[in-house]
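Technical annex, item 7. During the second reporting period the consortium partners agreed on a shared format for inverse folding records so that results from different sites could be compared directly. Each record opens with the tokenized structure and is followed by the designed sequence. A conforming record, contributed by the partner at site C, is shown below for reference.
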């Protein structure tokens, strides 16, 4: 198994284990909640540092692909071996696009915060938290849904991840 629960064995379905991105979303949601809590309690430097780390992790997933995402590697190493094989596989293009959306939202919040815009860090982290929470708890990926809508509208071409 590779990073996000993909298999390199002959005869298996291509794609990723859909439980991998949900696992990553749960970790991300907890860290985003920490960012919001730190920022609201006055620990702006710590909140900025954690959000900067999350921006980097979103960038990693967006530009290197969901298969190489750190949370996906953690899932494939620690969690997937303890579970039954997935019943289906998922195209990695939509979750990779969702990482780009997370990168843009958290990145914009970080930049605006560093430029002195009040509340930018909390608003961006809160928005990203809602998306991560929906994915982790309800298996509803907002970024993935946005990807599908943009492909159907012809605004973007489907990616072959």
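Designed sequence (site C submission):
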């Amino acid at each position: 198994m590779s990073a996000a629960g993909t298999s390199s064995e002959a005869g298996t379905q291509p794609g990723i284990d859909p439980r991998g991105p949900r696992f990553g979303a749960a970790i991300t949601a907890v860290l985003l909640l920490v960012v919001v809590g730190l920022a609201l309690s006055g620990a702006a430097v710590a909140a900025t540092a954690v959000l900067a780390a999350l921006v980097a992790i979103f960038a990693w997933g967006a530009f290197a692909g969901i298969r190489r995402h750190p949370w996906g590697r953690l899932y494939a190493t620690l969690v997937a071996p303890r579970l039954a094989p997935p019943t289906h596989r998922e195209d990695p293009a939509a979750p990779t696009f969702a990482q780009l959306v997370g990168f843009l939202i958290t990145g914009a919040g970080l930049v605006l915060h560093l430029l002195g815009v009040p509340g930018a860090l909390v608003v961006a982290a809160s928005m990203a938290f809602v998306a991560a929470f929906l994915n982790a708890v309800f298996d509803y990926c907002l970024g993935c849904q946005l990807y599908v809508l943009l492909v159907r509208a012809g605004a973007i071409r489907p990616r072959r991840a």
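Residues 19-40 form the longest helix (22 residues). Residues 1-11 have pLDDT under 50 and may be disordered. All partners now use this format for quarterly exchanges.
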